Amino acid sequence: MLKLIKKNKDKGGKEARSRTTGKSQGISSPGNALYKTIAAALGGLALVLLIVFAYLMLLREPGLTSKQTELIANAYAHQQATNVHRTIDLLRSRMVKAASTPLAQTAITNQNPEQLKAAEDALMAYFPDVLSLRLLPVGEMGTAAFEGGNQGLRNHIEVDLVGRTSNREATLPEAYQSDGAWLTSLAQLVEKPGVDSHNAVILATLPNTSINTLLESLDRNAGEFAVEQAYISPSGVEKTNVIASTGSAGDKKYTRRADIPGTAWRIAFTPSDKMISELSGSSGGILVLFALCLVAAIGAFALIAIRVPRTIGNDVNRMIAAADRKSELILDTPELVPAARQLRRATLRAIRTGNGVADPQTDQPEAELDLDADSLELDLSLDTPDIPDSFPAHIFRAYDIRGDARSELTEELVSQIGRAIGTMAGELGEQSLLVGCDGRNSSPALKAALIRALMESGRDVIDIGLVPTPVLYFATHHLDCRSGIMVTGSHNPKTDNGLKVVLNRQTIAAGGIEEIRDRTLEGDFSHGSGRMIKEDVIPAYVEEIANDVAVSVPLKIVVDAGNGATSDIAPELMAELGCEVVPLYCEVDGNFPHHAPDTSNEDNLTDLIAAVQREEADFGVAFDGDGDRLAVVTSSGRIVRSDVLLMIFAEDVVSRNPGADVVFDVKCSRNLTKLITQHGGRPVLWKTGHAFMKEKMAETGALLGGEFSGHMFFGERWFGFDDGMYAASRLAEILGTHGETLDQVIDRFPATVNTPEILIPVDDRGKHALVERIVAGADFNEGRVNTMDGLRVDFAEGWGLVRASNTTAALTARFEADSTESLENIKNEFREQISLAAPSLEVNF
């Protein structure tokens, strides 16, 4: 602790009273502007939260509930219509077969009333649900013979049915009331080929209670099922009768109808109050979330109210303590730097004029400083370990480790990193780790160093060989091993390499990567002697997808593996699905001789486009170096941007799973939000990065996710990790099932003017700080600013984005608008804002 002792005495020889506890000397603070600002900010935030949650409770949630209820009601109506249709068809088929028996044929041929009656009685045993069954021979003139009246038919409806049926007219089932009960009759002509005189009409009448029983085959608690039959009233107005019903109805506004094929009927389904209530859910969760957000906001502002004055107070104490010295002074509050400089100038000036005693550091008199000695303790602790200049800390990125394999990510460093990961895995109770690598020239040596290091840390290793990254992810589910490390440079240049780490089936992101870096620096590793075995999981991977995906119509697909890790597996998988495969660059070569392994660069798709058009293929796919990214081109050679591809997947997944969450990154089109909402799903905008996306999907329970860079994540029918090959398989399934070409599917979506991902080269170590400066100085008066990941601004006519790349030494930008003119206007606004923060940066858009 630094203490400064007051030495001045007053005229009477007594110590002068400390000015800090005396009068104000004309300096005072009647109010606390900091607390007022915090209170105003808290009030504004509370108002915003109130508006947001009111919107969710009063508008968005009821709207989504209504849409979901309508979709479910429509599905119930169509399913029940199908059930009734099948039952009627089955009854007709059984009637024909029954009338074709020898007993019935003899009775029809002889037209003997007693034989006909005996045949009818015998046939009734085969129709327990039928009220009556009549065999009526057709006369020589082609109509049913009626002697002495209607031959016991109930009414003119049955007479009309028999007459029209005998004349070979198509007749539909007719429902009518008889003695206060609803009955249904249907007639079927039974013909004996070549013998017209042996034809007959079989008429079956059944009580509509049997239709009620059929309607109850679905959950009657779900709502009311009613069979309606239309008729024309004497006044000429079409009306309907309910001829059968079951269950109880709720709000009639949700009633949905479906025609029953082969009848003049339709099914009307109205959800019950219970179903509507279950779909509506409770607003309690939203209220609890609102309360939590409000409490968190209050807590955050309280923390600010406590920490900021304390920080300022500490800085002031440091300023006072160092005012008479020329040593370096570092403050936590930049706004106090000018005041510190001014105080030091005044203090040193006073010393030079002789108003003080000697200071051993400056060899100058010590100034009289009016201080509270107890407040001058200095905290010199550090929050992070020292990082040597030779240590490439920048290769520890947001969600993986990646650098130049020649000078940065060397075998020695990988060995140290391996020991750190092995130590962390052991602390988590993970004894075994999977290890795989891609086809880069540096990968085998780095993988060998990694395996040795893991074994030396005491971990067992399962070596799965040269595989795409998704196969390693799959292996964490297929084998009895939940953790692994992939040696891969992904889509980076051939000289780079890296590590993707999975612990307990979770891809390690920023916090975990920082811990690996710190453990590597500290060098405090566990020790042991692990074992290694080898496993081939590729056959199981191909079989798993082949059992899940069904391509109805064989398609012709060009597969561009780019000489990466998918070279052997992707063509085999597509062929296993029944597709005709045209391989392109499907030989593993770590030099990537034909094009770079980056599918997000559209220049690398030129050869694929040419091959698809030359081969007249249905579509083409390209994979990056480790197979977790997918790029697609249509038969006409159009590149399918990944957010458009995600629209295709979202339509498919959400149609089967109303209300499902779909996660996508900030680089994606806002048309994606509209499409997901229109199909009853929930759009979730999130940060770019495969680890961040997987975390958000796990958090929300989303069934689908995607990034503009080409990562696709399927939680429906798959394991939720990014897998370019599985995504290509699902695309083939969709196109093969619906019968549309990929061009036709894309043409259904709204057209916009947009750019690909634009890379702006910058220094790798300063890119995040640069984006922070751009965000801090941004002023978009007419746009809605989102700083979740970089700077995204939405305007009425489009949007723009600039952010720091997590994987390359660049800023990434993207723009979309309704017209070319609007797109250029948005670009201009971004150019101006970027130039203010970084005047020397060359913007290439």
TrEMBL record:
Which parts of this chain are annotated as the region Disordered?
1-29
Q: Which InterPro entries match?
A: A-D-PHexomutase_a/b/a-I, A-D-PHexomutase_a/b/a-I/II/III, A-D-PHexomutase_a/b/a-II, A-D-PHexomutase_a/b/a-III, A-D-PHexomutase_C, A-D-PHexomutase_C_sf, A-D-PHexomutase_CS, Alpha-D-phosphohexomutase_SF
Q: What class of enzyme is it?
A: isomerase
- Give the record's keywords alphabetically: Isomerase, Magnesium, Membrane, Metal-binding, Phosphoprotein, Transmembrane, Transmembrane helix
Occurrences of domain Alpha-D-phosphohexomutase alpha/beta/alpha (ranges)? 395-523, 540-637, 642-749
* Reaction equations catalysed: alpha-D-mannose 1-phosphate = D-mannose 6-phosphate
Q: Name one GO biological process term.
A: carbohydrate metabolic process
Signal sequence region: none
Biased composition annotated in UniProt, kind: Polar residues? 19-29
MF terms from GO for this chain are: magnesium ion binding; phosphomannomutase activity
What Gene3D superfamilies would the database entry show?
A: Alpha-D-Glucose-1,6-Bisphosphate, subunit A, domain 3, Alpha-D-phosphohexomutase, C-terminal domain
| Pathway as given in its UniProt record | Nucleotide-sugar biosynthesis; GDP-alpha-D-mannose biosynthesis; alpha-D-mannose 1-phosphate from D-fructose 6-phosphate: step 2/2
Q: What is its EC number?
A: 5.4.2.8
- The Alpha-D-phosphohexomutase C-terminal domain covers 761-832
Q: What cofactors does the UniProt entry give for this protein? A: Mg(2+)
Name the residues that span the membrane.
Answer: 38-58, 284-306
Which family, according to the similarity comment? Answer: Belongs to the phosphohexose mutase family.
Q: What is this protein called?
A: phosphomannomutase
Output the lineage of the source organism. Answer: Bacteria, Pseudomonadati, Pseudomonadota, Gammaproteobacteria, Cellvibrionales
